[in-house]
Amino acid sequence: MPRENGTGAREGEDERMLNGGEGGGATVVVPSNEDASEKEKLAQKEVEVKFISSSNGDARIDLEVESQQTFSGMTKEELMKYANDPFWVRLRWLLFVLFWGLWVAMLLGSFYIIYDAPKCSAPVPLSWWQQGPLIEIDETQYESQLETVAQYGAKGVVYRLPANETYFIESESVKEKLEKLITTFRSKQIEVVIDITPNFVTADDPLYKLALEKGPNDPASARAFIWNDRATLPNWLSVAETGSAFKPVTATHAILSQFGPGRFDLQLNETIAKEKLKGVLRTLIGYGFRGVRLANAKHFIVSNSGNEEAMPSPEANKALSMADYGFWTHMKTTYVAGLGELLHELAGVVHGELHENGFLSVTEDILRPEVFAFNGTLPIDIPLYGNIEYDLREANNANATRKLRHDIENTYEAIRAYRTCCGGQPWLQLRYNNASLQYLGASEYTIFNFLLPGVPLFGLDVLTANGVTRETIETLEKFRASPSFQHGQFAVYNDASASTIAYIRLKSGNPGYFVALNLDPSEEKVADFSGIPGIGTELTVVLTSNNYAVPDVAIKTKVQVKAVRLSPKSALIATYVPAK
């Protein structure tokens, strides 16, 4: 039966008697109005039921969550109690700042790595004068040569200004002539290079007249020339005439005049003479010339102190006498210290106006590049240097191929030891003319010469008078435009028997070029070039010279690298896929 109020049962609880007993029965107490959320918790958990009996016979059921239950985390309500707790607020902000700080640091670090990593700069394309070829033109015929020059693909032409006009380029007649020349070739997008002779002036030059008027003791004008007392003239000989290099100009004094009557040598390291030459360079660039070649560069500075010495006995030509120019060393008038610094200043004028779009060069072999060097640079962008032209001209001997390889390697080794004023490397001047062809034909010479590192420079008649076709030059120019030529490696080899010579041009990822030459005048050679590193086993012929007459070998023919057949005095160019 139901309990009465106040019997100790909690309000809202129902009691039922167990077994209907009055004293010994058990009473089960079941909570009926528990909080809803508590019931939900219990419904989701395993519980342990305990029956607890008392001395009066009552029993209570105790529902208890199992002590070994699995942890299930805190509820949202429980977590929200800590949402505004100062400790957790600070911790959350600390972690937030650390996360984004590390993220930004990694981002900035990646940018820095990209910025600071070693750069693989794109290869600098060759300038117009490095691409070449350059063709020498005749002052009296250049208008009729224009179309032919353009058809041969010349990037520039070289015009030789008469020596006596060097310091008269601002006169009306000379200026008009030069401007017409430039306009003519610019119409075909061909640049113009000029050769000048700046180491002397004529008797009509205002500076010479001023020096003559004021005499050898004038501190300005007189210093531009080399004066000597007529009573104590040194034994210097004239370059152009027989006899002394000095010409009397007063009763007591003479002036150095090495290059013929009415021409008086300038001391170009003296400020007044040097500034005179710089003015000429600026004027020529203003007219539109994009390159200047200097004649007689080794004579630009003279050491006015004593007699010349005779050539050492081993080098002396026994047929010469003391009256001959070649008998003496000419150490006082050629290759005098200071040439490098002088040319460095002159190159600064040219590149200051034209930057890398123009060049400064010379017209003769520099022979001693160390004399023209200045602070590790060679201020001559296209030097003429080495024995390559001589070796090809005088190749009628058994040791010709070995000597040619030796001289090619030595030439490039010497030139590559220097940088130019603009930071690049000197670009060799590969000059040849009809006199160079006394042994090899023009076709063979041209094909072998064109892919050497440098710029070919020749007269137009070298091609037109010797059967070198426009198609041949066009093909060679296409090869010169390839990455393997413009930016690739260069190496020269003899075949296994050292009877022929070849060189390669190769840039990684591009076909290589193989250029071979047989200098033997009568015997066909079967050359083995398999010793060239990375050459592969097979070559594809792409160009042959006029003398090449091997049966069954033509353009696109494949030949074995260990058996390259070469006709007497012939050349070929082939491509190859480098071996991995």
TrEMBL record:
Stretches the record annotates as Disordered: 1-37
Keywords: Membrane, Signal, Transmembrane, Transmembrane helix
Coiled coil spans: none
GO cellular component: apical plasma membrane; basolateral plasma membrane
An annotated Gene Ontology molecular function: L-leucine transmembrane transporter activity
SUPFAM superfamilies assigned to the protein according to its UniProt record, in alphabetical order: (Trans)glycosidases
UniProt record, GO biological process: L-alanine import across plasma membrane; L-leucine import across plasma membrane; phenylalanine transport
Residue stretches making up the Solute carrier family 3 member 2 N-terminal domain: 58-135
Chain segments annotated as transmembrane: 93-115
InterPro entries per record: GH, Glyco_hydro_b, O16G_dom_2, SLC3A2, SLC3A2_N
Name of the protein in its database record: Putative alpha amylase catalytic domain family found in maltase
Organism: Anopheles aquasalis
